[in-house]
């Protein structure tokens, strides 16, 4: 018997495409596994409460049943599909919504066979808001064999949960195999964690374990596919990342399983949220440095996320504000690398009074290497005109932050004016370090439809640039990588005038953002009290900027954006140690 893992790729609620994908599977016998909520897409958020969505979804289920009933019955063919099951009140209002597995056989109608039991309610997940949890283990019979069923989170244990569906299911064994239907978001460390967890569960169940995951980019959340099968510690096969694919594997025979060890306890979902510090314990601590394979995966993820957002939003043109600095150069390079036939990218350089001539030279060299059109729109005259208008009307000083921010906002204005002319999508160029401490101008350099580097710290941006140059032959000029970071909004400005060195800043931020480190904890990690205090203050004071920031392509377990919800109005002094 063959197990077919269909890691599908479609837009949320695109029922016609989903139907066509389903119809194509009837050509091969075997057990066909589709991802969690395959019939709708994931995550749906409040869309699953919408009356038009519910009506169209139920019509879709009727279409599937009508189609399946016309097919000649086959004993060697069955589909397991993730979908929603509704109980509606008298006015069509959802009373109960369940995240379920449907069985579909030729000549039959959809049959609900399992309801997800462990509903995640952390980070980007809020399933307890929408769904009702199942109460019984997933036991399914087909072809005279018993199989175990899990949906995504059901395979993960946690000290925060009072339920462990996988262990409870194991008690109901034995099983010929266990299937997990997932819609598991991507982050750079999760693929290995999934397989480690699955190997431990295969050992627990003493049966092969098959895992199918969806592919797609939903706003800032990426789904990488990477479906697989394992049998104990043997890997049966792995599907590619970020690509629609059907992985067909034989139904493996039980093997000699090693005793269940610490792996089952170590690979819990909490382990996905640990601060990513270097294994080197020397102080002060530093971020873990990405290896070449991780850099390739991240670049692939950012390209995929950009294209998903653009194509699903109807954009074929991209626009990047190029400054001659590292971040904008890296963004432009990744955008260029991601382009598909019929797409194009344009760069705009907007020099001001404090822009260095080398910024133009380096921008020109980069665009020449990339084959990207570069236009110059100076802001000097506009800047001086606004300054004169304000000085002629108001008595307050037009210096310092006022003068700096108006330059950044002028660039945002010109960028979106050009976007309106061409219909191009503006790609933001801020990195995670800047977003964390508010080192950007609201409605200025913070503008954009999507952020490529919003989950990439500054030191990691350098590492990505170095890897791209190593892999593709010095695409980004060395002068861009080597020059000190500067916003060029005042004379001789350098980032390090206002911030701790990035290698220390990024590590402090990682400690804060993992939610694991307090003020005192960070001092024990070798950071000075002055720097820790400054970073905490900048971090909490800039929450209002983050709330209005554009979507950030999520590549880590803890990121700003959809899964990060912190009040704007709060006392920010609670982080300080009490006397």
Question: Could you say what the CATH architecture of the largest domain is?
Answer: 3-Layer(aba) Sandwich
CATH superfamily of the largest domain: HUPs
Helix content: 25-40%
Taking the sheet with the most strands, its summary is: 6 strands, mixed
What is the CATH class designation of the largest domain?
Alpha Beta
Strands of the largest sheet, in order across it? Answer: 5-4-3-2-1-14
User: What's the CATH topology label of the largest domain?
Assistant: Rossmann fold
Layout: helices, strands, pairs:
Layout: E1 2-7, H1 15-23, E2 30-33, H2 51-69, E3 77-88, E4 94-104, E5 111-115, H3 127-130, E6 138-142, E7 145-151, H4 165-171, E8 177-182, H5 190-205, E9 209-213, E10 215-218, E11 221-224, E12 228-231, E13 234-238, E14 245-250, H6 263-266, H7 292-313, E15 317-321, H8 326-338, E16 344-349, H9 357-370, E17 373-376, H10 380-393, H11 401-422, E18 425-428, H12 432-437, E19 450-451, H13 458-472, H14 478-482, H15 502-513, H16 519-524, H17 529-541, H18 543-547
Parallel strand pairs: 1-2, 2-3, 7-8, 8-9, 15-16, 15-18, 16-17, 18-19
Antiparallel strand pairs: 1-14, 3-4, 4-5, 6-7, 9-12, 10-11, 12-13
Helix pairs in contact: 7-8, 7-13, 10-11, 15-17
What is this structure, in a nutshell?
The protein has 579 residues and is an alpha/beta fold. It contains 18 helices and 19 strands.
Can you walk me through this structure?
- By secondary structure, the protein is of the alpha/beta class.
- It folds into two domains: 272 residues, Nitrilase/N-carbamoyl-D-aminoacid amidohydrolase (4-Layer Sandwich); 283 residues, HUPs (Rossmann fold).
- It has 18 helices and 19 strands.
- The strands form four sheets. Strands 5-4-3-2-1-14 form a six-stranded mixed beta sheet, with no helix packed on it. Strands 6-7-8-9-12-13 form a six-stranded mixed beta sheet, with helices on one face.
- Helix 7 crosses helix 8, helix 7 crosses helix 13 and helix 15 packs across helix 17.
- The radius of gyration is 26 Å and the shape is globular.
- The relative contact order is 0.09.
- The model has no long low-confidence stretch (mean pLDDT 93).
């Amino acid at each position: 018997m063959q197990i077919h893992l269909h890691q599908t790729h479609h837009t949320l609620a695109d029922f016609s495409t989903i139907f066509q994908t389903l119809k194509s599977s009837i050509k091969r016998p075997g057990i066909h596994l589709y991802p969690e909520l395959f019939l709708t897409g994931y995550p749906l958020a409040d869309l699953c409460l919408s009356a038009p969505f519910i009506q169209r979804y139920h019509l879709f289920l009727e279409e599937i049943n009508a189609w399946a009933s016309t097919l000649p019955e086959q004993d060697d063919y069955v589909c397991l599909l993730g979908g929603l099951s509704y109980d509606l009140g008298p006015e069509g209002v959802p009373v109960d919504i369940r995240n379920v597995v449907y069985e579909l056989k030729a000549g039959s109608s959809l049959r609900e066979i399992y309801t997800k039991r462990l509903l995640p309610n952390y980070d980007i997940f809020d399933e307890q808001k929408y769904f009702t949890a199942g109460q019984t283990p997933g036991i399914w019979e087909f072809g005279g064999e018993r199989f175990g069923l899990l949906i995504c989170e059901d395979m993960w244990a946690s000290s925060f949960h009072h339920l462990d569906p996988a262990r409870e299911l194991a008690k109901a064994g034995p099983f010929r195999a266990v299937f997990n239907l997932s819609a598991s978001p991507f982050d750079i460390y999760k693929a290995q964690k999934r397989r480690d967890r699955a190997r431990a569960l295969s050992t627990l169940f003493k049966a092969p374990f098959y895992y199918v995951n969806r592919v797609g980019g939903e706003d800032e959340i990426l789904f990488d596919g990477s479906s697989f099968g394992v049998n104990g510690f043997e890997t049966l096969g792995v599907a590619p990342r970020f690509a629609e694919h059907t992985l067909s594997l034989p139904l493996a025979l039980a093997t000699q399983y090693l005793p269940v060890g610490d792996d089952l306890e170590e690979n819990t979902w909490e382990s996905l949220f640990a601060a990513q510090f270097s294994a080197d314990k020397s102080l002060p601590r530093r971020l873990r440095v990405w290896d070449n394979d991780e850099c390739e995966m991240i670049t692939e993820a950012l390209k995929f996320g950009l294209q998903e957002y653009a194509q699903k939003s109807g954009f074929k043109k991209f626009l990047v504000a190029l400054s001659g600095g590292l971040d904008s150069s890296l963004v432009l390079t990744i955008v260029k690398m991601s382009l598909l036939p019929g797409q194009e990218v344009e760069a705009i350089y907007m020099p001001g009074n404090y822009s260095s001539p080398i910024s133009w030279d380096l921008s020109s060299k980069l665009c020449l290497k990339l084959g990207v059109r570069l236009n110059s729109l100076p802001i000097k005259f506009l800047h001086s005109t606004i300054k004169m208008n304000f000085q002629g009307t108001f008595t307050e000083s037009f210096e310092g932050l006022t003068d700096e921010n108006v330059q950044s906002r002028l660039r945002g204005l010109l960028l979106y004016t050009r976007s309106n002319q061409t219909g191009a999508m503006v790609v933001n160029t801020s990195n995670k370090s800047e977003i964390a401490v508010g080192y950007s101008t609201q409605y200025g350099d913070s503008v954009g439809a999507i952020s490529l580097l919003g989950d990439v710290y500054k030191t990691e941006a350098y590492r990505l640039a170095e890897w791209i140059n190593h892999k593709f032959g010095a695409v980004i000029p060395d002068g861009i990588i080597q020059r000190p970071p500067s916003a060029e909004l005042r004379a001789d400005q350098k980032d390090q005038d206002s911030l701790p060195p990035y290698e220390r800043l990024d590590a402090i931020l990682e400690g804060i953002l993992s939610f694991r480190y307090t003020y005192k904890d960070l001092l024990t990690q070798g950071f000075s009290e002055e720097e820790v205090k400054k970073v905490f203050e900048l971090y909490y004071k800039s929450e209002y900027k983050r709330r209005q920031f554009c979507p950030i392509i999520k590549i880590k377990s803890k990121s700003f954006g959809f899964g990060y919800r912190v009040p704007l109005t709060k006392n920010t002094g609670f982080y300080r140690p009490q006397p």
